[in-house]
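Practice problem 4.
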């Protein structure tokens, strides 16, 4: 009985922390309609800042707490609301989700950059020098008592704020209809600012309270928020009492599992994955109403032409040939991962781009493809590659079945929970047998991966594997482009625009969603297998949730509705990091921070940067004089680099400067040609495909 009470006290203390963090999530969402994925990261940064103030710089604890909670946390909340969230408030929920994911990634990268993750930073509990309190047979430390008291005080204060003050009324009214709330004399913008400040202050309180019980690790502290997600979902993102109940369930469940779970090789990961499992089950079991606030019109999905798709696929192959001709064998190993990662990023296009279904577990599914190929294709058996894709597709179809009743933020939460379960439990399992069939994942270590046998040739060299990955990316790009132009692609766009209308017109939601989830997962499984071949050894850490977030962000930055996102993501994820790798180990965190900053600029290009790049470079691509000149310069640079006749940085600079100058010249020539009267089009300037449409519109308007 004493042991049960001890675990109960620990569970209540943990539940109090989850309740504090969960209420911050609820306050932010109930006021702004934004589910803040970076809520845990804000608490993590607060924990590090508290350590820096109280331990690193020796400030008195009361002064450190006051400065952190009354100055730093509110300033951070105002920054997030004004700089990050206000520009995307008029966009859809997907764009707002991406902004918080970018903030999460940026906070983790910033913490790792500022505070060396290899240095231990212990934090002492509050009043650790005082004897513990005795409540009957149970022992309660002062830190646990303070945690429980703070949680109860915050609950009471929030209830009074939301239900007994004008500011609280403004906060609750703003999310339902900001315009109507403004007409009644409320200030929706002030309510939004207050919500972000309060939410991030509560995240800071939760981070400070839980930091002494865990290691100060950026990723671990940020992912503790999964438990708070569960508590918030218990409260359906709007009820504070139900959020506290959910936190109580999660905290006690973790404590009892830690104390009573049998000790064997298969169950330790279950305790770590329990909050994510509970979140997934809560999403499926509880009735979910649509997120508050009407979703805005989604971004455009471009229709790729057959010619453009072939040019893109050819560009992938030419880029691969360029790499193998100018790089050393060691560099080919590092740069070669951009094509497998491009295949994984391409899997977002049919799922998130065409169908509007947000998935955060694509890299985890890619890990399944890598594991299946590693075990079944251990000797290069080519048949194992389609099997790896089929197994990954089956996992995607399995996710699609419960996803039928989830959408938007709820689907993103569900897929994130699925990825967390894979990371914390499934991928850590040792080999086991099911009906006489041996099932193995990472075998609590790493899996060796080899290349395939192709037409009697065993592909093992980095150059061969890079070319194989490039061919697969080119074919996958053509396939996704062909899907968009076909009948099934039009069905996916219709499903994305309106699920209700799609079902009313006879569309089969379950079949279509299952098919697109399976297709997307199959592409991700192919990318995972190719990635494993390139790096030769894979571990579970390479396919976890946090590792996959930058890939998702870069794909969104490129444009989920564009098939060129695969190549763009691979280049943007790998090339800058490799070019700067010689500067030090901090480069990885710096590049991740740059990716996050680029994601935070989504409001300036909601359709993706590839759409802007296409518009900016189109005049040069259509210019019959300047385009051959650019190709000649690029070809010359390629030849000089392949022959190693000059410095590579000099050639890169020459190619970039030439391209920019010719683009500027082509744009100026196009602006001059716009002054030509329509009757002289095709005479004084070249005829363009869009000219016919312009003339048709003018003729229709005149008639």
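Answer key:
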């Amino acid at each position: 009985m004493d042991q049960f009470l001890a675990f109960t006290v620990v569970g209540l203390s943990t539940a109090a922390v989850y309740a504090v963090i969960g209420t911050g999530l609820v306050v932010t969402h109930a006021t702004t309609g934004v589910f803040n994925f970076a809520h845990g990261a804000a608490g993590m940064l607060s924990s590090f800042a508290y350590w820096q103030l109280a331990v690193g710089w020796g400030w008195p604890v009361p002064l450190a707490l006051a400065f952190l909670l009354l100055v730093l946390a509110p300033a951070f909340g105002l920054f997030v609301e004004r700089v990050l969230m206000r520009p995307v408030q008029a966009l859809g929920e997907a764009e707002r989700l991406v902004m918080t994911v970018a903030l999460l990634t940026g906070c983790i990268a910033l913490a790792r950059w500022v505070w060396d993750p290899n240095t231990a930073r212990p934090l002492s509990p509050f009043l650790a020098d005082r004897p513990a309190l005795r409540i009957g047979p149970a022992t309660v430390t002062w830190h646990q008592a303070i945690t429980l008291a703070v949680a109860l005080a915050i609950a009471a204060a929030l209830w009074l704020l939301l239900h007994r003050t004008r500011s609280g009324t403004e906060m609750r009214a703003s999310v339902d209809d900001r315009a109507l709330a403004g007409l009644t004399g409320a200030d929706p913008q002030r309510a939004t600012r207050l919500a972000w400040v309060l939410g991030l202050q509560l995240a800071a309180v939760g981070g400070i309270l839980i930091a002494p019980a865990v290691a100060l690790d950026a990723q671990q502290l940020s992912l503790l928020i999964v438990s708070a997600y569960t508590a918030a979902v218990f409260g359906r993102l709007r009820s504070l009492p139900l959020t506290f109940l959910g936190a109580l369930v999660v905290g006690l469940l973790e404590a009892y599992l830690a104390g009573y779970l049998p000790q064997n090789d298969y169950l330790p990961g279950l305790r770590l994955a329990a909050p994510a499992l509970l979140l997934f089950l809560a999403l499926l079991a509880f009735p979910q109403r649509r997120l508050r606030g009407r979703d805005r019109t989604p971004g455009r999905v471009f229709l790729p032409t057959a010619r453009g798709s072939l040019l893109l696929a050819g560009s992938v192959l030419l880029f691969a040939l360029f790499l193998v001709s100018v790089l050393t064998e060691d560099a080919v190993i590092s740069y070669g991962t951009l094509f497998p990662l491009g295949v994984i990023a391409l899997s977002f296009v049919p799922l998130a781009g065409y169908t509007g279904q947000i998935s955060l577990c694509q890299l985890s599914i890619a890990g399944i493809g890598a594991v299946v190929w590693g075990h079944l294709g251990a000797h290069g058996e080519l048949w194992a590659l389609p099997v790896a894709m089929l197994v990954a597709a089956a996992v995607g179809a399995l996710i699609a079945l419960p996803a039928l009743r989830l959408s938007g933020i709820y689907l993103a939460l569900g897929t994130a929970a699925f990825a967390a379960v894979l990371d914390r439990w499934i991928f850590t399992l040792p080999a086991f047998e099911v009906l006489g069939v041996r099932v193995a994942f990472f075998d609590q270590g790493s899996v060796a991966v080899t290349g395939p046998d192709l037409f009697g040739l065993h592909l093992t060299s980095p150059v061969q594997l890079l070319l194989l990955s490039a061919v697969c990316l080119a074919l996958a790009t053509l396939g996704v482009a062909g899907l968009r132009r076909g009948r099934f692609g039009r069905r996916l766009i219709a499903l994305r625009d309106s699920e209700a209308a799609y079902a009313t017109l006879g569309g089969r939601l379950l079949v279509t969603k299952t098919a697109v989830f399976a297709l997307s997962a199959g592409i991700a499984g192919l990318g995972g297998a190719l990635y494993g071949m390139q790096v030769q050894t894979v571990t579970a850490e390479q396919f976890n949730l946090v590792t996959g977030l930058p890939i998702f962000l870069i794909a969104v930055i490129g444009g989920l509705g564009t098939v060129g996102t695969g190549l763009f993501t691979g280049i943007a994820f790998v090339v800058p990091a490799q070019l700067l790798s010689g500067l030090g180990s901090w480069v990885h965190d710096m590049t991740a921070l740059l990716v996050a900053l680029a994601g935070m600029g989504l409001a300036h290009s909601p359709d993706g940067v590839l759409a802007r790049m296409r518009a900016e470079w189109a005049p040069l691509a259509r210019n019959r004089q300047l385009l051959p000149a650019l190709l000649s310069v690029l070809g010359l640079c390629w030849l000089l680099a392949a022959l190693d006749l000059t410095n590579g940085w000099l050639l890169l600079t020459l190619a970039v400067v030439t391209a920019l100058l010719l683009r500027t010249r082509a744009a100026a020539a196009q602006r001059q040609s716009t002054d030509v009267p329509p009757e002289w089009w095709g005479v004084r300037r070249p005829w363009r495909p869009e000219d016919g449409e312009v003339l048709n519109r003018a003729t229709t308007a005149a008639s």
